[in-house]
């Protein structure tokens, strides 16, 4: 089928990872269902959870220039499909920030809700946006979290693998240390606490995947993370010119004259950085091409190097 082939090629062209061949096979049957039944192509992606609570990572607690660019990427993705396929597509975002509140590593429920409201104002009608309350049918995030755990966590007996726990622990320790009381902890205590939180976070993520598979089974599952070769999810790079992996809500933009971008922490010590307010949409740092090259070659401090390896 020529149309299916064109659509698959278009969708896979947005793939962010090493698993393009596998993604092509996974979406093949789903595309056939949508086309044969004259239905819009449905996509779903947990994303835009809320800004990092670490003041050294981002400029603000609200939507920034990073999210505006990410939204434009999604809108371009939708528009490209709509031009090719008469029934178009629907793109669903699940704001999952509230899900992790009980772990003590997020901003407040109120700040997360404000972030989501800003997102809704910016998005087009082509994007559908759900919070945990929407999914659980409640007006209370506390009630929604408890209901989610009963329905999708307590029945889930799968334990996270050691490699996932190790990666999640490293991320938790680096991104959320100030939220979990590192000033009163030894290195061993911080490591232990970070590992404990990481395990709980991975179990919640597994529960969210279970919710998606049960309630959105016809949807094509997307991820904001770079995907390994064996991954069944399709990663989508939200910041097209970024030379590294990372997400808008945990990073700020460092932009070189060539247009290439680094996603990095606000307090990174990059010598040439200058703070710029771009069209009143938000802030970014402008940096030199030589500093961008130094970053690509791993010639900055070990802190920047290892932080970049976290893929968040």
Keywords:
alpha/beta, five-stranded parallel β-sheet, four-stranded mixed β-sheet, 9 strands, globular
Question: Any overview of this molecule?
Answer:
The protein has 312 residues and is α/β, with parallel strands linked by helices. The protein folds into two domains: 2-159 and 206-235, Rossmann fold, CATH 3.40.50; 248-308, no CATH class. Helices cover 44% and strands 12% of the residues. It has helices spanning 2-12, 20-36, 65-84, 109-122, 132-136, 141-153, 162-175, 187-215, 289-296, 302-308, and strands at 41-46, 89-94, 127-130, 220-223, 234-235, 252-255, 261-264, 274-277, 283-286. The protein has a five-stranded parallel sheet. Strands 7-6-9-8 form a four-stranded mixed sheet.
Mean pLDDT: 92
Beta fraction: 5-15%
CATH topology of the largest domain: Rossmann fold
CA-based shape? globular
Number of helical elements:
10
Give the termini distance in whole angstroms: 38 Å
The total of beta strands comes to: 9
Helix content: 40-55%
Q: Over all CA atoms, what is the radius of gyration?
A: 20 Å
Q: What are the secondary-structure elements, in order, as H or E?
A: HHEHEHEHHHHEEEEEEHH
Estimated structural class: alpha/beta
Number of domains: 2
Examine the secondary-structure arrangement and name the CATH architecture of the largest domain.
3-Layer(aba) Sandwich
Characterize the main sheet. 5 strands, parallel
Q: What is the CATH domain class of the largest domain?
A: Alpha Beta
- Detail the poorly predicted runs: none
């Amino acid at each position: 089928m020529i149309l299916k082939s064109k659509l698959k090629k278009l969708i896979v062209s947005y793939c962010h990872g090493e698993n393009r061949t596998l993604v092509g096979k996974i979406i093949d049957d789903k595309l056939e269902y949508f086309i044969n039944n004259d239905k819009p192509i449905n996509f779903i992606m947990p994303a835009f959870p809320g800004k990092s609570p670490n003041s050294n990572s981002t400029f603000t607690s609200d939507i920034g220039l990073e999210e505006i660019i990410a939204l434009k990427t999604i809108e371009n993705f939708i528009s490209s499909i709509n031009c090719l396929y008469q029934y178009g597509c629907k793109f669903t975002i699940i704001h999952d920030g509230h899900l992790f509140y009980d772990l003590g590593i997020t901003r407040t429920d109120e700040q997360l809700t404000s972030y989501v409201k800003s997102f809704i104002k910016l998005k087009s009608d082509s994007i559908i946006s759900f919070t945990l309350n929407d999914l659980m049918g409640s007006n209370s995030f506390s009630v929604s979290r408890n209901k989610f755990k009963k329905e999708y966590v307590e029945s889930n007996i799968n334990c996270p693998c050691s490699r996932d726990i190790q990666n999640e622990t490293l991320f938790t320790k680096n991104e959320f240390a100030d939220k979990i009381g590192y000033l009163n902890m030894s290195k061993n205590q911080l490591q232990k606490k970070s590992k404990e939180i990481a395990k709980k976070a991975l179990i919640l993520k597994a529960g969210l995947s279970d919710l998606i598979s049960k309630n959105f089974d016809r949807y094509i599952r997307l991820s904001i993370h770079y995907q390994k070769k064996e991954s069944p999810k399709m990663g989508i790079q939200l910041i097209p010119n970024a030379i590294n992996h990372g997400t808008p809500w945990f990073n700020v933009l460092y932009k070189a004259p060539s247009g290439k971008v680094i996603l990095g922490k606000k307090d990174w010590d990059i010598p040439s950085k200058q703070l710029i307010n771009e069209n009143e949409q938000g802030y970014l740092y402008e940096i030199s091409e030589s500093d961008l090259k130094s970053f690509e070659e791993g010639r900055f401090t070990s802190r920047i190097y290892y932080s970049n390896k976290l893929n968040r």
